[in-house]
Each structure stands twice: as C-alpha cells, then as structure tokens.
Amino acid sequence: MISDVFNSGDGGSDGRAPGPLDGMVVLDMSRVFAGPLAGQWLADLGADVIKIEQPGRGDDARGLPPFAQAGGQDLPGASSAHLSYNRNKRSITLDFTKPAGHAVLLDLVRKADVLIENFKAGSLAKYRLDHASLSAVNPGLIYCSITGYGQTGPYRNRPGYDIIFQAMSGLMSLTGHHDDEPGGGPMRVGYSAVDILTGTTAALGITAALMHRMRTGEKKGQHIDLSLLDTQIFNLSHMAMAYLVSGDIPPRCGNRSYTGCPVQPFDCADFQVVVSVGNNIQWQRFCKVMEVPHLIEDPRFASNSLRVQNRDALIPLLAPLFLARKAEEWVALLDGAGVPVGPLYDLAQVFEDEQVRHRGVLKQIPHPVAGEVPTLANPLVFSETPVRYASPPPQQGEHTAEVLGSLLGLSEAEIGELARQGAI
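^ CaiB/BaiF CoA-transferase family protein, sequence as received from the core. Prediction below:
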C-alpha cells in the first residue's frame, strides 16, 4: 500500500512522468459497466488496478456483442463493452467462496488502497468481505460500493439496470418528443448514461477519499456508498431545479430546448445542423446570416423568452431557409458570425472530424491476438502527468500468476496448488 503519496512511482520505461495515482493499488471486484469504468479512470491515472474475476466465467460484459475480431473471427471475451472499461488493468481469476481463494483475497486487501465492488447490497457480508470486515483487515482501505439503490432504504435489495434508473430518476420523462407529436412519449437516452455517470462519480469519490486520507495523515479509509438512482437524480441538475423552484414539470421538447430558441436541429440540403442561439446578440447575427433581418425587429421574437413562447411561429419561418445550402456551408457561415452551430453527426462522421482527429480522441492499443484494438482517449489532458494507454483490456485471468507472484510473493508451486484447489 502506498504511504499516502500519490506520485511515489518513478515513471515508466518510456521515460514519461508517473501518473497522478502512480503507486496506488486498486482491487476491482466489479462487473459490467459502472464499477469497471471507475476502475479504468483510476488505471488511466496511473493506479495498479487488479481486476478480480470469477474463474470460468469472468466479467459478464465479456459476453456482450459486438466483439473485436482476428482473422474474421470474433475474439472470445473481447467484447466492445469489455474493451470500453478495462484498459490499463491486470486481470486475475479468484474464487473467494473457497477458503484458499478467500485467504488470497484478504492478502490482496492488505496490500490495497482501494476496493471497488458492485454486488447486491449486503451480499458480501456472508463472506466477511463487507466494508466492516475488510476495514478490520486494512484500516486504510477506501471501500467503494456501487449499487442500484444504495446500501440503505426499502429498495436496497432490488436488482436493476441502467434503463430502470433512467425511468425512476425522471430522465426518461424529460427525453423524447411531446405526447402530441408523432413518436411522442418518454424515451431512454441512447446509451448507458446512468452507468457512465456513476462510474465517473465513483472515481471522483475515491480520489477525494484518498486525498482526505493523505491530508489528515491518518491510516484510515472510509466506505463510499454510491447509488445509480442517487447519481442520476443529482445529474438532472437544472432540470430538476426548474421543477423544484416552480412546481411545474418541464415538458419534453424532443430536440428543441426548454429554455432557448432557436436551439434545435435543422434539415439542410444534405444532412442536419444544430443551432443554439443563446442571447439577443447571437439572434441578431443569426438573422443577418440567414438573410432575414426583419425578424430582428419583429416584436414576437424580441427576446429569448418571447422566442420560446412563439416557437411555433418562428421555426416554420426558419426551417425552409436551411434547405438552400449544405450543412458544411451553414456551419462555416454561422460559425464565422459567432453563432454556436455544429453538424449532427453519426458515429462514422464523428471520428472523421478534423477537431476530433486533432485532439487524438481515437487511439489504438496493441492487442496480443487482434494486433491492436481501438480505444477512446481519456478527456483529461494533463500538462505534467499525461494519461497512459499502456495495455489493452486484459484477457480473463491473464495476470493471475504475475500478480500473486509479484504482489504476494507466492511461488510457482503455491500458485499451482491454488489452481488445483479451484481457488484461481
């Protein structure tokens, strides 16, 4: 375990500076999305993250298609989901329900700074792997529990997935077209938004707990109780506050804005652009570019609130104008006038955009079977401690012998005996 000094390492063989969490040991006992993403955040920042998987099964996310391929064949376990959340980690297989496996896990806990788990609330207590039990083994351990509903409350034992929390948090009620429009009704966000937000929140909470431990100088960890439902309600942010201060439930607006106009996509000669006119100065510039300066003086559209109020009159005046040019032309004209605008991309277009390419958002990591696999760059750009992309998401149990030998000092014979007992 590190001595509460984050930059205790001496950098890598590439000569780059150590990451801000270099030297920290993390046990990642989580599966699927939110927990593994939290672990990947810490791994990206330099921590030694050890992914603990069940022998013979591994992380459930390994089985979610689509898969990376080699020679035209799917690579077992190399699913897009697994590849998304597990780079820079080492994987071991360990069955903590067996006495020998349980003993190995306790030895790992003694070496660790952080443990991440997303088992059902209370289920690890029967194996003496709950926070109370492990804090007795390692008082400095930061123990992060990620569950659907939290460790307390009437729903604490319920299972749940992302879409459940999108529904219960109110997120789906805010997403989609109005009931009176074609296809109207609540709609889920197009990816696992709650899982992603929760994983990132967990990483923030863990680093804050480590900072507290360092700042106080005490070898004392703490328990982080993180709920997907709590996280998504918090991230409703100003939309929840709009309800709380007014008592009015915000309506679904589809691709339009609840608070601004024109803020929405428009069809162009080829594909769509999104315009976001945020104030009167931008409105005036927008009208000049669109060659409708008379709308600036129209009393119906004299302020943002009036434009929102009279949206149904304004948008039919604007929509036909966009059809006269291609999206790229409108982006150049409006951006040149200082009006916020952007093309509405599909994913293929995203990765061809010159800004995205310049920022290096897409990277390639060498892979032992596939040759290399794509990965999305961490958005943090440090001036002194750059994020590393040192290793691909590991194969199941790839580092079992390495970790048990280097971290716990077990011999080949001892590791072989653990395998014979089915503990690894």
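The chain is about 35% helix and 15% strand.
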